[in-house]
Amino acid sequence: MRPHRGPPHARFRAAAPTGARRCAHPLTRGESDRIVTPAYGAAYADALGRGRPEIVPEAGHLPQTEQPEATFALIDTDLRETGAGSSRTL
Protein backbone atom coordinates (compact mmCIF):
# COMPACT_ATOMS: atom_id res chain seq x y z
CA MET A 1 0.00 0.00 0.00
CA ARG A 2 1.36 3.41 -0.95
CA PRO A 3 1.28 6.28 1.56
CA HIS A 4 -1.34 8.96 0.91
CA ARG A 5 0.20 12.28 -0.14
CA GLY A 6 -2.83 14.50 -0.68
CA PRO A 7 -5.21 16.39 1.59
CA PRO A 8 -6.13 14.33 4.69
CA HIS A 9 -9.69 13.50 3.61
CA ALA A 10 -9.22 13.25 -0.15
CA ARG A 11 -8.15 9.62 -0.10
CA PHE A 12 -11.62 8.43 0.92
CA ARG A 13 -13.22 9.47 -2.38
CA ALA A 14 -10.79 7.32 -4.32
CA ALA A 15 -10.64 4.47 -1.82
CA ALA A 16 -14.35 3.85 -1.21
CA PRO A 17 -15.52 0.82 -3.20
CA THR A 18 -18.41 1.43 -5.59
CA GLY A 19 -20.88 -0.69 -3.63
CA ALA A 20 -19.97 1.08 -0.40
CA ARG A 21 -21.08 4.42 -1.83
CA ARG A 22 -24.66 3.33 -1.19
CA CYS A 23 -23.98 2.71 2.49
CA ALA A 24 -26.62 4.32 4.69
CA HIS A 25 -25.44 2.84 7.96
CA PRO A 26 -24.01 4.59 11.02
CA LEU A 27 -20.28 5.15 11.27
CA THR A 28 -19.60 5.18 15.00
CA ARG A 29 -16.85 7.04 16.80
CA GLY A 30 -16.32 7.91 20.44
CA GLU A 31 -16.97 11.45 21.55
CA SER A 32 -13.41 11.71 22.95
CA ASP A 33 -11.71 9.85 20.10
CA ARG A 34 -8.37 11.57 19.54
CA ILE A 35 -7.54 9.54 16.43
CA VAL A 36 -10.70 9.91 14.34
CA THR A 37 -11.65 13.59 14.58
CA PRO A 38 -15.20 14.80 13.85
CA ALA A 39 -14.03 16.23 10.50
CA TYR A 40 -12.31 12.96 9.59
CA GLY A 41 -15.40 10.93 10.45
CA ALA A 42 -17.66 13.30 8.48
CA ALA A 43 -15.36 13.11 5.45
CA TYR A 44 -15.42 9.31 5.59
CA ALA A 45 -19.23 9.29 5.86
CA ASP A 46 -19.43 11.70 2.92
CA ALA A 47 -17.13 9.49 0.86
CA LEU A 48 -19.48 6.57 1.41
CA GLY A 49 -22.37 8.60 0.05
CA ARG A 50 -25.10 8.06 2.60
CA GLY A 51 -23.08 7.01 5.63
CA ARG A 52 -23.96 8.96 8.75
CA PRO A 53 -21.58 9.70 11.59
CA GLU A 54 -22.81 8.70 15.05
CA ILE A 55 -21.10 9.79 18.25
CA VAL A 56 -20.93 7.37 21.20
CA PRO A 57 -20.85 9.35 24.47
CA GLU A 58 -18.11 8.71 27.03
CA ALA A 59 -16.02 6.66 24.60
CA GLY A 60 -12.70 7.12 22.88
CA HIS A 61 -11.32 5.36 19.80
CA LEU A 62 -12.88 1.96 20.61
CA PRO A 63 -16.54 2.70 21.39
CA GLN A 64 -17.53 -0.94 20.84
CA THR A 65 -15.21 -1.90 23.71
CA GLU A 66 -15.55 1.16 25.95
CA GLN A 67 -19.34 1.62 25.65
CA PRO A 68 -20.65 -1.60 24.09
CA GLU A 69 -24.29 -1.08 25.10
CA ALA A 70 -24.45 2.39 23.53
CA THR A 71 -22.58 1.29 20.40
CA PHE A 72 -24.70 -1.80 19.81
CA ALA A 73 -27.88 0.20 20.52
CA LEU A 74 -26.97 2.41 17.53
CA ILE A 75 -26.36 -0.66 15.39
CA ASP A 76 -29.56 -2.38 16.55
CA THR A 77 -31.61 0.75 15.80
CA ASP A 78 -30.12 0.95 12.33
CA LEU A 79 -30.84 -2.72 11.64
CA ARG A 80 -34.46 -2.28 12.74
CA GLU A 81 -34.92 0.89 10.65
CA THR A 82 -33.35 -0.52 7.49
CA GLY A 83 -34.66 -4.05 7.80
CA ALA A 84 -31.11 -5.29 7.35
CA GLY A 85 -31.52 -7.64 10.30
CA SER A 86 -34.41 -9.45 8.60
CA SER A 87 -34.19 -12.51 6.42
CA ARG A 88 -34.60 -10.51 3.21
CA THR A 89 -31.71 -10.33 0.78
CA LEU A 90 -29.90 -7.01 0.68
Number of helices: 4
Strand order of the largest sheet: 1-2
The proportion of strand residues reads: 5-15%
Backbone CA Rg: 14 Å
Give the mean pLDDT.
76
Can you summarize this structure?
With about 90 residues, the protein is α+β, with helices and mostly antiparallel strands. Helices cover about 40% and strands about 10% of the residues. It starts with 10 loop residues before the first helix and ends in an 8-residue tail after the last helix.
Layout of strands and helices, then pairs:
Layout lengths: L10 H5 L10 E5 L7 H10 L4 E5 L6 H4 L1 H15 L8
Parallel strand pairs: 1-2
What does this structure look like?
This is Hydrolase. α2 (about 40-45) links the parallel β1 (about 25-30) and β2 (about 50-55). With about 90 residues, the chain is of the alpha+beta class. Helices cover about 40% and strands about 10% of the residues.
Please give a handful of descriptors for the protein shown.
single chain, 90 residues, alpha+beta, two-stranded parallel sheet, 4 helices, 2 strands, 38% helix, 11% strand, Hydrolase, AB_hydrolase_fold
